[in-house]
Design goal:
alpha+beta; 24% strand
């Protein structure tokens, strides 16, 4: 049976606070999402895995629907 196509929803995530002084889990999450600089905006698919990563660092980022 073929897999159903998911919707191609995207979210824009902007790193607005530094990970300096944060726990290692939070630093690793910032790196795993692909952030390199402050105020960098990245676009990721809107799925539960990405939403879970955002929840870990919700106080460091700003999220918008793309």
């Amino acid at each position: 049976m073929a897999r159903k196509k998911t919707t191609d929803r995207k979210i824009q995530i902007t790193l607005i606070h530094s990970a300096i002084g944060r726990s290692q889990v939070q630093k690793d999450t910032v790196k795993a999402l692909g952030f390199k600089k402050l105020y960098q905006t990245i676009e990721k698919p809107d799925n539960p895995a990405i939403r879970g990563m955002i929840k870990t660092i919700e106080h460091l980022v700003e999220v918008k629907e793309a």
